[in-house]
Amino acid sequence: MARIIGGVASTHVPSIGKAIAENKQNDPYWRPFFRGFDYVHDWLAREKPNIAVVFYNDHGLNFFLDKLPTFAVGAADQYRNEDEGWGIPVSRAIAGHPALSWHIINGLVADEFDVTMCQDMLIDHAVTIPMALMWPGAAAAKASPAKPWPVRIVPVEINTVQHPLPSLARCLKLGRSVGRAIESYPENLRVMIVGTGGLSHQLDGKRAGFINKEFDRFCLDHVVGEPEVLTRYSIHDWVEQSGAQGVEFLNWMAMRGALTGQVSELHRNYHIPISNTAAATVVYENRKEAERKAA
Ligand SMILES: [Fe+2]
To answer: Burial letters for 20-55: b for 16+ Cβ neighbours within 10 Å, e otherwise?
Structure first.
């Protein structure tokens, strides 16, 4: 059976892609952020996932304001990136796992999430940048075919762009439904869950540059063991506390929901600012009850 080994969440700011392209990982501005991935690399090398289910929000590459699903699941053989206009290199395509995608879609619809099903889907920087951070070098378009991405992906898009947005509670439930579906999939897979975006930031309006360190810490402290506490906030409360784009935390809530066992925080890196954004990177372990008893 497929097994959910844990989760990683990361900021996905486009300027990270530029820093990678220009090899600025050790510059004083970037070093505190990139060093936060050292632990992630060790964890990935140890745990060896072969599937990543990625909760993210599209910024206009695959969906635009004219047609924007609240939830969409990719069911493609592979997912391509294209030039989004940020001046960052186009990422190499990432293979999908259509059979697992359809299994997850069936589980979601059975749980009354009426998702959009995408057999052709572009992935934007909200997927490609966290992937490039987790597996340095793999995104380069000219990377050796003999060294492919080490995981296949199932992208799950959540609308954090055009209001009305889904609630935090709804995204937590979405994640739980995805987690149940993964664990009922018969193939022997090691699945990691990824949530991208956040934390607090606002890119426009009178509060452009807004960051709320105290609220970010509150979120990081509660999302691991008490995610329900965060569901008490409405989306408008969240915008007030975390900024207009801080609502990308919905992807983190879905990621947390998909971790179905005993969840503990293995790693946290929080750094201000990366391009007007509070940058956070976490690794969560997901252990089944039986494993805990055996340990
Ligand atoms: Fe974003």
So the answer is: beeebbeeeebeebbebbebbeebbeeeebebbbbb
Beta pairing, strands 51-56 & 152-158 = parallel
Residue 288 Cα, ligand 1 centroid: separation in angstroms? 32
Angle, helices 213-225 vs 235-242, to 10°: value is 130
pLDDT at 146: 54
> Between helices 38-47 and 125-134, what is the axis angle to 10°?
80
Q: Which residues are known catalytic residues? A: 125, 201
Separation CA 68–CA 60 (nearest Å): 9
Instruction: Decide: 213 and 151 in contact? Cβ < 8 Å.
Output: no
Q: Which residue has the tokens 């900024």?
A: 243
Burial class (CB within 10 angstroms; exposed 0-12, middle 13-18, buried 19+) of 133:
buried
* Axis-axis angle for helices 213-225, 249-258 (nearest 10): 20
Say which residue the tokens 């739980």 belong to.
176
The predicted model gives 82-86 an average pLDDT of 94
C-alpha distance across the termini of the chain, in Å? 21
Interval between CA 245 and ligand 1 midpoint (Å) = 7
Residue with tokens 């975006």: 197
What's the token pair of residue 134? 């987790």
Q: Are 74 and 154 in contact (CB under 8 A)?
A: yes
181 CA from centroid of ligand 1 (Å) = 27
pLDDT tens readout for residues 14-42: 999 999 999 999 999 999 999 999 999 99
Q: How far is the CA of 1 from the centre of ligand 1 (A)?
A: 33
Cα–Cα distances (Å) from 117 to 54, 82, 93, 114, 172, in that order, read 15, 20, 19, 9, 20
Per cent of the chain over pLDDT 90 is 92
- Surrounding residues of ion ligand 1, Cβ less than 5 A: 197
